[in-house]
Amino acid sequence: MFIKANGTELFYQKSGEGNPILLLHGNGEDHTIFDVLAKQLSPKYTVYAIDSRDHGKSSRHKNLDYHDMMEDIAAFIRKLEIQKPILYGFSDGGIIGLLLAIRYPDMLSKLIVSGANTNPSGAKKTLVVIGKIAYFFTRSRKLKLMLTQPNITEAELNKITTPTLVLAGSKDFIKDEHTRAIAKNIPNSVLNILEGEGHASYVLHSDKLYRIIKPFLEGM
């Protein structure tokens, strides 16, 4: 299905019944990475798996900014009149989730982020070097986004009042100390570093993620 939100045509797939939960993918992906998770959530939740702007079937834009992507999701929630949804965001989706919780503290009931960073220096050096080389040859706006944003401060994280679960793999592209700092600066957040997991190993088309987030969803 398509909906126009914040001047953007967003594609989304809706399934299930129950409390609403939004699923936001990472850079260069689309909603289909959540095919397994959406099926597992559907018996208890109304699932909205969304393609971010310039991804999947959603409309294209010359420039990308995480704040614009966040406003897309805020407009999506308002337009569909979704009341206090849960939001799970992976990587870039997690960044969008953090920005949403900062900008609109009463919009979400719960927030789960995994493999998210608050500034480009939060990524390990190898990823940054590879990204810069790839950008030199491709001039990809998605890579530019990753290399130059976000710029979320500790003071902004301190403002988050939404109950938050922070996830990352022990072998993540995001530095361990960076993930821990995110959790430390979000009041009353829960941190779970997943031993042996990489950035996306427990997320993409995986049946692991539901088991990981289920206790938090059900009132952890």
CATH class: Alpha Beta
Major beta sheet summary:
8 strands, mixed
- Structure classification: alpha/beta
Strand content: 15-25%
What is the number of independent domains? 1
Total beta strands: 8
CATH homologous superfamily descriptor: Alpha/Beta hydrolase fold, catalytic domain
With helices defined by DSSP (H or I, 4 residues minimum), what is the helix count?
8
Question: Would you tell me the overall average pLDDT?
Answer: 96
Listing every helix as H and every strand as E from the N terminus to the C terminus, the arrangement reads EEEHEHEHEHHHEHEH
Radius of gyration computed on alpha carbons: 16 Å
State the helicity in percent bands: 25-40%
- Indicate the overall shape: globular
Strand order of the largest sheet: 1-2-4-3-5-6-7-8
- Uncertain residue ranges: none
CATH topology descriptor:
Rossmann fold
Note the gap between the termini. 33 Å
CATH architecture: 3-Layer(aba) Sandwich
Topology record:
Layout: E1 2-5, E2 8-15, E3 19-24, H1 35-41, E4 45-50, H2 66-79, E5 86-90, H3 92-103, E6 110-114, H4 125-138, H5 141-148, H6 154-158, E7 164-169, H7 176-185, E8 190-194, H8 208-217
Parallel strand pairs: 3-4, 3-5, 5-6, 6-7, 7-8
Antiparallel strand pairs: 1-2, 2-4
Helix pairs in contact: 2-3, 4-5
Description:
This protein has one domain: 3-Layer(aba) Sandwich (Rossmann fold), CATH 3.40.50.1820. The protein is α/β, with parallel strands linked by helices and 220 residues long. It has helices spanning 35-41, 66-79, 92-103, 125-138, 141-148, 154-158, 176-185, 208-217; strands at 2-5, 8-15, 19-24, 45-50, 86-90, 110-114, 164-169, 190-194. The model has no long low-confidence stretch (mean pLDDT 96). The longest helix is centred in the first third of the chain and has 14 residues, at 66-79.
